[in-house]
Amino acid sequence: MKAVVFSEAGPSDVLRLVERADPSAGPGEVVVRIARSGVNPTDWKLRAAVGPSGPHDEITPGHDGAGVVEAVGPGVGHVGVGDRVWVVLAQVGRAYGTAAELTVQPANHVVPLPDTASFDLGAALGVPFMTAHRALTSGSVSRLESGALTGQTVLVAGGAGAVGNAAIQLARWAGATVITTVSSAEKAALARAAGAHHVVNYREGDPQAEILAVAPAGVDLVAEVAPVPNLALDLAVTRVHGTVAVYAREGGDDLVLPMQSAIGKNLRFEFLVLYTLAEKLVQAAVADISAALAEGAVRVGESAGLPLHHYGLTELAQAHDAVERGIIGKVLVELD
Ligand SMILES: NC(=O)c1ccc[n+]([C@@H]2O[C@H](COP(=O)([O-])OP(=O)(O)OC[C@H]3O[C@@H](n4cnc5c(N)ncnc54)[C@H](OP(=O)(O)O)[C@@H]3O)[C@@H](O)[C@H]2O)c1
C-alpha cells in the first residue's frame, strides 16, 4: 500500500510517500481502505513537535478518515467486509493513522457510516465533532440527543473554525439557542450556514452587550477555543452555574483566572483534550454523533459553513501547511 510517513519531527517536508506492506487484522481489529483522510491542527502540531518513539521508527499521521472495511479480525461483529465506515482517533496510541491506503484499527474505533453520508462527511467527523461533543456535554447534560439542550443557550467561540462549526451543528441539533463569535463578515456567513441563531463579530462593537441582549441571564455554556483573550467576555456572559468548556489555547497559554468572578457565579471551567479522554466518553460521543448523522443533522461543505479543500496523498505536506496557515474549512485527502 501507499502511505505517508515521517521519521523525525519537523516542517511538512519531513513527510514522505512510501510503499509499505498491507496491514492485517488481528483479533478485535479492522482494516479499513481509506477513501478520505481528514486533516486537523493536531496532525501538523504532532508532526512538527513529536517524532517517533517506542518500537516505531516512523509515523503515519491522521486521526480522521472514512472508507470501506477491507478485513476484520476474529471477534469483530459490528462491521463486515465492504461496509462503509468512519474511524475515530486513529493515531492515538498508535503509529499508523489515516494518511495511507489502508489502516488497521481497534474495532471500537471503526464506526458504520450511513449510505446517506459521503466519505467527505465521514472523514470530517472524528476530531472536530468528538471535541464539540465533549465540550457540549461538559455542562448540564452528559449525552446529546435531539432536544437535550432545549431551553439552553450555548456560546460557541470561533464558529467558523472546524470545531466551532461542529459545535454549532451539534448544539443546534440538541435544541440549544446558539450564539457564536467570528472575526469577519465572511466567517459570519459560514457560521449562519452552520446553523447559528446569532452571530457576533468579536472584533468590533460590544460583543458582551450583543450576547447579553440574546441571553440576559447569561449563556449556559461556552465552547471556548481562545480562553486567554476571551476570559473577560466569558466571565461576563456566562450565567450563574454555567460552564466554560475549554478545548484549545488560541491566542495564549497562560490563563489567569480572577477568582472572585468565577467563584461568585458558581462557574465550572472544564478543560478537555481527546488524547486522554476516557474511552466511555469517546464511545458516548461516537453514539451521539452517529445519532445526529442518522437524523441528517450533520453536514459539511460551504452550505453547512464548512468549505471543503481536497488534496491528493502526494500533497499531504501542502494539506498540513494549509491547516497550519488557518485555512477556513475542512482539509481532506482523497485516496479513492
Ligand atoms: N482539545 C482537543 O482535543 C482539541 C481537539 C480539536 C482541536 N483542538 C484545537 O482547537 C483549535 C481549533 O481547531 P480547529 O480545527 O477548529 O481549527 P480552525 O478550523 O483553524 O479554527 C480555529 C478558529 O479559532 C478561532 N479563534 C481564534 N482566536 C479566537 C478568539 N479570540 N475568539 C474567537 N475565535 C477565535 C478562529 O476564528 P477567527 O479567525 O475568526 O478568530 C478560527 O475560526 C486548534 O488549536 C486545535 O489544535 C483541540
Automatic annotation (TrEMBL):
<dbReference type="InterPro" id="IPR020843">
    <property type="entry name" value="ER"/>
</dbReference>
<feature type="domain" description="Enoyl reductase (ER)">
    <location>
        <begin position="10"/>
        <end position="333"/>
    </location>
</feature>
<dbReference type="GO" id="GO:0003960">
    <property type="term" value="F:quinone reductase (NADPH) activity"/>
</dbReference>
<dbReference type="Pfam" id="PF00107">
    <property type="entry name" value="ADH_zinc_N"/>
</dbReference>
<dbReference type="InterPro" id="IPR036291">
    <property type="entry name" value="NAD(P)-bd_dom_sf"/>
</dbReference>
<dbReference type="GO" id="GO:0005829">
    <property type="term" value="C:cytosol"/>
</dbReference>
<dbReference type="GO" id="GO:0070402">
    <property type="term" value="F:NADPH binding"/>
</dbReference>
<protein>
    <submittedName>
        <fullName>NADPH:quinone reductase-like Zn-dependent oxidoreductase</fullName>
    </submittedName>
</protein>
<dbReference type="Pfam" id="PF08240">
    <property type="entry name" value="ADH_N"/>
</dbReference>
<keyword id="KW-0521">NADP</keyword>
<dbReference type="InterPro" id="IPR011032">
    <property type="entry name" value="GroES-like_sf"/>
</dbReference>
<dbReference type="InterPro" id="IPR013149">
    <property type="entry name" value="ADH-like_C"/>
</dbReference>
<dbReference type="GO" id="GO:0003730">
    <property type="term" value="F:mRNA 3'-UTR binding"/>
</dbReference>
<dbReference type="InterPro" id="IPR051603">
    <property type="entry name" value="Zinc-ADH_QOR/CCCR"/>
</dbReference>
<dbReference type="InterPro" id="IPR013154">
    <property type="entry name" value="ADH-like_N"/>
</dbReference>
